Amino acid sequence: MDTLSLSGRIKALEKKFQSADMMEKLAHSKDLNEFAGLLERSFYRIPQNIRLLPEVDDIFGKHRELLSAEMRKVLPDCLYLYFALKHDFYNLGLLVGGNTGRDSHSSLSHVDFHVLRASFGTGNYSNIPPYLRPALSLAAASREKSSSETTNRLKNLYHEVATGLVRPVASPMIGYFIRMDADFSNISVFIQKQMSGVRLEKHHLSDAGNIKKERFLSGDYLWKSVSSEYGNLAVPVDAGNYESGRYRVMMEYMSRARAVPNGIEPVFFFFAAREAELEQVRRLAVGKLYNIEPEILMSWGTYSYQYDYGL
After folding, report:
1. How far is CA 267 from CA 65, 76, 77, 229, 304, in A?
2. How many whole angstroms separate alpha carbon 75 and alpha carbon 268?
3. Cα–Cα dist 250/228, whole Å
């Protein structure tokens, strides 16, 4: 792969990201029609006169499919598989929960859902790539156990598999990003257990983060560690500010790849930012459909890859 020429093409496309100013305009647009007009020159096209949530879901579902196809065409196999992995694990989660996935499975997985379901039922993993077999084996062996317990174990295994998939590119910057994702997953588990009054144990947590999982067993130690590792994240993190805080920290980190002159990092983070921005623009579109106040939309996290975070 010619990363030098590809990085140059990626740099030229970065202007299609939403700027911080544009994200604010989207949040303050008077209705979904004006919202759609503001996106006319972006990665996203939304027709006028949208009235129903399924229409919004269908539009952004098609954008996800286009983005996934572009990733598959451009990225090294290991990085494409990383981006598809969450969809593979989502489909595994459906099977663990007893859902046939007829209407709700993800089509963006690397392994076709029907192939996955057949292997789950028969125990024949010959059509399953090696990196996914431990997760499928765990899911199949846990049929009689609590689905929430199995889902938690799958989530931790996801981060281990993700770490292994990106290892061939030997990029410390990408590796750190994968570990950031594991840290935020652990923070989410900490918040959930705290809200439910359930004691947090080490086996609930992933080993794949930048912060040792033992630090999550005490709130005082945890927030000191989080502040040390992610100084731009307001602590303590709770259910009300988790999503916006996570989005900001992750997007700020992704934006640093713009300062890398060449290599795989600008390419990887271009797609990671595209994926994150797509989901955020979709959330804003849904909020606009339901006439949610702009101030609330802004609080969801409207930080932009385009914004120069002091670089």
Report:
1. 18, 10, 13, 25, 17
2. 8
3. 16
Mean pLDDT of the residues in the chain: 90
Phi, then psi, of 54 in degrees rounded to 5: -60, -30
The answer on pLDDT for 172 being more than 60 is yes
Per-residue pLDDT, averaged over 225-240, amounts to 95
Non-local (6+) Cβ contacts of 151 within 8 A are 93, 96, 97
Q: Which residues does 258 contact at the CB level (< 8 Å), separation at least 6?
A: 11, 14, 266, 269, 311
pLDDT digits (tens, 9 = 90+) for 119-128: 999 999 999 9
Cα separation, 127 vs 296, whole angstroms: 46
pLDDT tens digits, 235-272:
999 999 999 999 999 999 998 888 887 789 999 999 99
286, burial (CB in 10 Å: exposed 0-12, middle 13-18, buried 19+): middle
User: Could you tell me the CA-to-CA distances from 299 to 19, 129, 156, 194, 276 in Å, in that order?
Assistant: 16, 41, 29, 23, 16
Q: What is the pTM of this model?
A: 0.92
